[in-house]
Write the structure tokens for this entry.
Amino acid sequence: MGMFQNFMLKQMLKSKMKGVPEAEQERVLALVEKNPDFFKKIGEEVEKRKKSGQNEMEATMQVMREHQSELQKLMM
């Protein structure tokens, strides 16, 4: 991932994680940096659900549940 893309991704994620402890934010950012294709896929699925009428939180939770086992493996 390019340096500029990496910077923009970090800024976007930080804006979405307001109120989350700094250490946890860094952990999530590291996961995204190591697995950008997986998280891109999740983002695309969330956007698709939003376009079909779901609100962002509902769409995100549903997609995360569908990928729960993969997320757990990444966090280990």
In short: The radius of gyration is 13 Å.
